[in-house]
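Weekly puzzle thread! Below is a chain. First person to post its structure in token form gets bragging rights.
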Amino acid sequence: MDIQSFLRSSLEEAGYQVETAPDGKTAERLAVDGNFDILIVDLGLPDQDGISLILRLRRLGVRAPVLILSARRSVDDRVRGLEQGGDDYLTKPFALAELLARLRNLLKRNSPAVGEPVRLKVQDLELDLLRRQASRSGKLLQLTPQEFVLLEYLCRNVGRVVTRSMILEQVWGMRIQPDTNVVDVHIYRLRGKVDGVGQQPLIRTMRGVGYVLKDR
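Winning reply:
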């Protein structure tokens, strides 16, 4: 049994409704036309690289979280996958239990539980957790999915300094700090969108420590 057939049968047994695609072109059509809660993308597609597919889906407005599957195991490969629109990264071979746990985490992250707020607000910055959209002073911010998750994490920790290691673990799922500037790069890009010209700066750098989203 190939990996796609194995995953389909395993996920259906776990209670998921599953659609599969034999190649990237078909997957793109299904993702754009359908309404999926989550996508699993193998980087080793027969007709294209999975990263190219993810980038195109994001440009086309597909916001469903993406779990990347890949035999590429280096830190650089993982970081690139997450920077290019993936929400989590699982290397092959993998345990089915871990894949199911990662799916549950992504679904939970993107679907606030009953009783949890569906909006977060810090001064004039507002996050819609259902639509996965952010705005400031009523103006919609054009954020990538990973930038939104990062901003959400900062908002949930408003007024509290969070270290790079904390951000890597909570936003990128990395439990050790690799030799990468992925956090600094994303904070720089996020700050450029949130703290635009004429706006009071909200995201601040605490030198040698980390970052904080100020509420006043």
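Puzzle host: Confirmed. Bonus trivia for everyone else. The chain has two domains: 3-110, 119-213.
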